[in-house]
Amino acid sequence: MKVKKICCIGAGYVGGPTMSVIAQKCPDITVTIVDINEQRIAAWNDSDLSKLPVYEPGLAGVVAEARGRNLFFSTDVDTAIADADMVFISVNTPTKTYGKGKGMAADLKFIELCARQIAAASKSDKIIVEKSTLPVRTAEALKSILHNTGSGVNFHILSNPEFLAEGTAIEDLHDPDRVLIGGENAEAVQALVDVYASWVPRERILTTNLWSSELSKLTANAFLAQRVSSINAISELCERTGANVDEVARAIGTDSRIGSKFLKASVGFGGSCFQKDILNLVYIARSYGLQEVAHYWEQVITMNDHQKHRFADNIVQTMYNTVSGKKISFLGWAFKKDTNDTRESAAIYVADALLSEEASIVVYDPKVTAEQVYADLDYLGTRTPAENRRLVSVVGDPYDAAERAHAIAVLTEWDEFKTYDWHRIKDHMMKPAFVFDGRKLLSGSKLDELGFQYYAIGE
Ligand SMILES: NC(=O)c1ccc[n+]([C@@H]2O[C@H](COP(=O)([O-])OP(=O)(O)OC[C@H]3O[C@@H](n4cnc5c(N)ncnc54)[C@H](O)[C@@H]3O)[C@@H](O)[C@H]2O)c1
Ligand SMILES: O=c1ccn([C@@H]2O[C@H](COP(=O)(O)OP(=O)(O)O[C@H]3O[C@H](CO)[C@@H](O)[C@H](O)[C@H]3O)[C@@H](O)[C@H]2O)c(=O)[nH]1
């Protein structure tokens, strides 16, 4: 079976870039990305490519190449489903905020809504692809909803988790380490293999059973996050012993059994995936009565929370045990560089802790809007929106952020921070001028020379 029309439900950080690349690489397939969020779809259709709702290096070029040719963005979900022979589900699967599993389990209500809508809108047989990250055995629930419509339409369900990382999404999609496809029906699996084989070497397209594929996604994120928490645990020990965490990371990373990636100590991992997916893994393990397994993975989150708090505590302690009324300038708000995404960013939690100590905060991030910064703080509910706006300001120029600041905290590893005129920054700061580098991004020796009091994670 050859796929001619693809529909993707969900035009977010995954649906948008992933389907744009499929459209770019498979000009003979018509790809329609649909979403219920009208504003988002309008932004994807904006003729000004700088207004795309997702910032990713290289994405605008891919969209420019395919949009209007074989790539379309629409809010007409039913029509796109009815026309397609393959439907990707790429909607959000956040941590549940209510009921059983609150704070742990994945909230599958958006997935179920999609399944019901697919069931209602379909007039012909379809392959349904789970692109969202889902708990193992979700395909079973999907099957049950789709197979009980009584419409006589046949559905084959595949699991095809996405491994792209934000900030490098286009690179990751163009040249993935692997593409994973889980499924029971050989013809359906082959149809999706053929789509990816248009640009991905065949040996990098792995096929497994449905459950292995679903579970591999949670497992991959758990392993990656575990490495960050492991090196962050060592960073605290480095600070007490005179060891340097970058040197330790290099020393262990050259062991080919360990490998060098994902060993960068930081203020803590953020992003929409790691915490959510580990919590979900813990919840699943617990629901099978596997307490030790659950406890083991839960420590990854415990360590990450500790790292964020300890960074904020260290700022307070170093600044003579009080930041009340002091201006602390945040360089970076996004959860990593090269993205405008702030979901679960460590910056939010560090800011919250410092605001509780009555600090005032000025934020500069090259890609994050003031609106987003306030939305992130308001969402925590620690203080009123009015208070957040009184205590936090967001500026469009890093030098303005540094003006009369008592301290600078580096929260995101944006490359441009390294290129600033740090001499000029120091001149305009209060003295002593503190820098707390949560990313080990800046040159400590250079900043020391300039007269800063420089503190970095893991030194
Ligand atoms: N963000 C990442 O880097 C990443 C990477 C790999 C996997 N994932 C997984 O992919 C999934 C999507 O993540 P995301 O970051 O793209 O989320 P997102 O919130 O950016 O996008 C999801 C979109 O789905 C839309 N939506 C929800 N219900 C809908 C419905 N019934 N009909 C139409 N549209 C609907 C929302 O309006 C939203 O625009 C999640 O399961 C996530 O865990 C994310
Ligand atoms: O050595 C490291 C590597 C990462 N991080 C932090 O960890 C977080 C996550 O980074 P990264 O994994 O690069 O970005 P994500 O976009 O969250 O991507 C992860 O989550 C996605 C969603 O599931 C998966 O698809 C990707 O494979 C997986 O890397 C960020 O805050 C990083 O700053 C560190 O602190 N140190």
TrEMBL record:
Q: What InterPro entries does the entry give?
A: 6-PGluconate_DH-like_C_sf, NAD(P)-bd_dom_sf, UDP-Glc/GDP-Man, UDP-Glc/GDP-Man_DH_C, UDP-Glc/GDP-Man_DH_C_sf, UDP-Glc/GDP-Man_DH_dimer, UDP-Glc/GDP-Man_DH_N, UDPglc_DH_euk
UDP-glucose/GDP-mannose dehydrogenase C-terminal domain location is: 329-444
Q: Which residues of this protein are catalytic?
A: C273 (nucleophile)
Q: EC no.? A: 1.1.1.22
Could you tell me what reaction this enzyme catalyses? UDP-alpha-D-glucose + 2 NAD(+) + H2O = UDP-alpha-D-glucuronate + 2 NADH + 3 H(+)
Gene Ontology biological process terms from the UniProt entry: glycosaminoglycan biosynthetic process
Annotated metabolic or biological route of this protein: Nucleotide-sugar biosynthesis; UDP-alpha-D-glucuronate biosynthesis; UDP-alpha-D-glucuronate from UDP-alpha-D-glucose: step 1/1
* Lineage: superkingdom: Bacteria
What biological function has been recorded for the protein in this entry?
Catalyzes the conversion of UDP-glucose into UDP-glucuronate, one of the precursors of teichuronic acid.
The Swiss-Prot or TrEMBL record describes its family as follows: Belongs to the UDP-glucose/GDP-mannose dehydrogenase family.
Protein name according to UniProt: UDP-glucose 6-dehydrogenase
* Organism whose genome encodes this protein: Parapedobacter pyrenivorans
Q: Which gene encodes it?
A: ugd
